[in-house]
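User: Assemble these into one structure.

Assistant: Restating your components, then the assembled model:
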Amino acid sequence: MSVIGLIQHAALRLTDASGESGRILLSLFIMLASAKLMAELFERLRQPAVVGEILAGIIIGPSVLSLVQPSSATEVLGEIGVVFLLFTVGLETRPGDIRKVGRIATAVAVLGVVVPFFAGWGLLVLWPGYSAIEAVFLGAGMVATSVGITARVLSSMGFIGAAASRVILTAAVIDDIIGLLVLAVVSSLAEGRIRYLHIALTALIAIGFAILILTVGGRAVRRVKPRVSSLRIDHSFLLFALVLCFGLAAVAGMIGIAGIVGAFLAGVALSEATDDTRLHLQAGALTEFAAPFFLVSIGMKLNLSIFLSPAVVALAAVVTVLAIATKLIGCGIGALTMGRRRALQVGLGMIPRGEVGIVVAQIGLALSAVGDKIYGVVLAMAVLTTLAAPPFIKIAFAPETRLPQDDDEVLDQPLG
Amino acid sequence: MSVIGLIQHAALRLTDASGESGRILLSLFIMLASAKLMAELFERLRQPAVVGEILAGIIIGPSVLSLVQPSSATEVLGEIGVVFLLFTVGLETRPGDIRKVGRIATAVAVLGVVVPFFAGWGLLVLWPGYSAIEAVFLGAGMVATSVGITARVLSSMGFIGAAASRVILTAAVIDDIIGLLVLAVVSSLAEGRIRYLHIALTALIAIGFAILILTVGGRAVRRVKPRVSSLRIDHSFLLFALVLCFGLAAVAGMIGIAGIVGAFLAGVALSEATDDTRLHLQAGALTEFAAPFFLVSIGMKLNLSIFLSPAVVALAAVVTVLAIATKLIGCGIGALTMGRRRALQVGLGMIPRGEVGIVVAQIGLALSAVGDKIYGVVLAMAVLTTLAAPPFIKIAFAPETRLPQDDDEVLDQPLG
C-alpha cells in the first residue's frame, strides 16, 4: 500500500467517526463557495448575482455534478435563507412609503396577478398533455414578482429611491400576499375540493395580520425597545429582532400564508422603530450567509433532463415570453396614472419572478399535483425572467437619475 | 361549528399547504426564544447563560414538554452553531498569544488530558454494570475543556486579558485537538480494533494542519485580502471569511479531527490578518443566531428519565467531582511554574467541559458503544462542571484586576 493510499485510507476510516458532521460541513462549504464563485462570475458579466447562485445549485446538484444532494438539512437552510432575505428587505422598507404609494401599488399588484394567472392557466388548458390542475398551478406560479430579486437588482443599479421603485417594491409585496392566497386556493383544489369559507377566512386573517403589523407594529417595537435594551444578555436587540422575525414567520405559517410574509413584516416593524445601523449590518451578515443556501437549493431541485424534450423547451419559452408580456401589460396599466414612462418602468420592474413562484411549484410537486416538467418550466421561467429584466430596467430607468425632483411631485400630487 | 372552531379548522387545513416550512419556522422560533429567555434568567441569577440555554433544550425537548423533536434539521443548525462559536473564539485569539504561552499551555493541556482520562476510565472499570468500551468513552468524554464556554465565562467577567486566561484559552484549544485524537482512537476501539498506524498518521496530519494554519495562515490571508476586496460581490470579505471557515472545517473533518478545530483555526488566521471590526460584528451576529441552536440541541438529546435511577445519579455525581478534581490537579501541576495562585486560576478555568465531551458522547451513542446512561452522565458532567466553575473562577481571579502589570512579567520572563 502506497503512502498516499495509506493516508487516504486513514482519512476515510477516521472520517467515519465524525462522519455525519464532516459530510454536512463539506456540503455547506461546497454550496457556499460555488454560489459565491458563480455570483462573482455573473457580477463580472454584468448579470444579476442571484441567477449565478441558482445556476450554482443546478451545477452542484443531482442534475450535473451531484456533489450535494437535496436533503432536509439543505431544505432548512434554504428556508432560513429566504426568511432572512425577506427580513432584510423589510428592514429597508418604511411603512410610510408603503402607505404613500398604497393605492397605485394595489392596482399594479392586482392587475399584475390577474393577467398572468389567466394567461398561464389558459395556455396550459390549450397545450396538449397536461392536466387541468397543472394548468392552475402554472397560472399560480406566474403570479408573484420576486421582492428579493427585484430589490437586489434595483439597489445594485442605484435606482432604489426612484418613484417607480417604491411602487414596484410595495406592489411586489402585495402580490406576494395575493400569490400566497392563490396558492392556498390552488392547494385545496389539488386536494380535491375548494373550501371557499376557509379560504375567505384565511384571506381575511392574512390581510388583517398584515394591516395590524403595518399599523401598530412599529409603535409596539418602539415601546418595548427600552426594555429590550435593559436585558442582561449580549446583543439583546439583535436577538429580539430575530425572535420577532421567526415568531411572525411562524404566525404567518400558522394562519396559512407563507412564513416569508411574516419575516418581511417583522423587518418593516423594526425599520419603523429604529435606525440602528448595527442591526442592519448584523441582519445583512445573516442574509449574506443564509441567502445562498436558498438560491442554491432552488437550483438543486431542477431536473435538467426534462429539457431534453423539445416540447418542454418550447413550453418553457412560451411561458417565459407570456410571463414577461403579462406583467408588463398588467402592471403597466395599473401604473398608467403615473405617466407612460413610469408605467413602463413599473411593468419592467415587476417582471422577475422568484421565491413565491418556485414555492408554488415546490408545493405542487410535493402534493403530486404537478409533474417534473411543469416544475422545471416554472423554475426556468423564474430564472429567465430574472435574467431578462435587468437590461430593460437599466434602459428604462437610465434618465431617471437626472430628474430626481420631479419624481416626488409625481408621487405626491396624484396620491397626496 | 363555532367561529373559533372554523378559524382553527381553516388554519389547520391551510397550514398543510405550507406545512413542512411552517413547522420548521415554528421549531426555530421555539428554540431561539426559549434559549434566550433562559439565558436572560440565568444572567439575572448571575449564572452562565450557556447553562440556561442547555436547560432550555432539556425543557422543550422530548424529556419534558416535547415541543421540538431532535431532527436532522436541528442537527445541522447545532453543527453550524458550534462552528460559528469556535470561529468567533478564533477571531478573538492572536496567534502571537498562542506562541507566547505555548510551552506552559502544552504542559497544562497534556496533564489536563491524561489525568481525567485515566480517572474516568478507571472509575467505570471498577463501577459495576458498564462495559470496558463505555469506560474508555467516559474517560474520553472527560478530557476536553470547552473553549467556547470558558471563553464566554472569562470574557463576561472581564478577565479575558489576564495571564492565566491566555494560558487557559490556549491550553483549551490544544486539549480540544488532543481530545479529538483520543476520540479517533476510542471510535476505532468501538469498532473492534485499533489501527495504530492510521491513528499515528491522523495525529501527524492533524498537528501538521494546525501548525501550518497557525504559522502561514495569517500571512496567506493578508496576501489574498486585497484581491478579495476587489471582488465585485457585496460583503466579499465576510463571504471569504465564511468560505474559509467552512472550508477549513471540512478539511479538518476529512483528515479525521472535528470540524470545529478547522473553524477555530480559520478564525485565528483571519484575526492575524485583519482588525476589521465590521467582520467581528458580523461574525458575532452569526454566532448569536446560531449558537443557541447548538446549546439547545445538546439539551434536547438528554433523556431525563435515566436520572430516576439512584445508581446513575450517584455515578453522575462521582464523575462530576472527579472531573473537577482531575482538571484542577492535572492543569494546576502543568501551570505550577507560573506560581501557585495562577496555577489555581488555570486549574479552575479548565474545569468547564462542553462541546467536545458531548461530541464524544454523541459519537459513542451513534456507534452504539455507549448507552443512554453514560450519555446522560457525560452530559450532566458537562453541564454541572460549567455551572460549578464560574463562582470559583470569580473568587480566584478577583484580586487580579488590581495587579495588571505584574501579569505580563510573569508571562514574559519564564517564557520569553
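The domain at 79-293+310-415 of chain A is CATH 1.20.1530.20 (Na+/H+ antiporter like fold).
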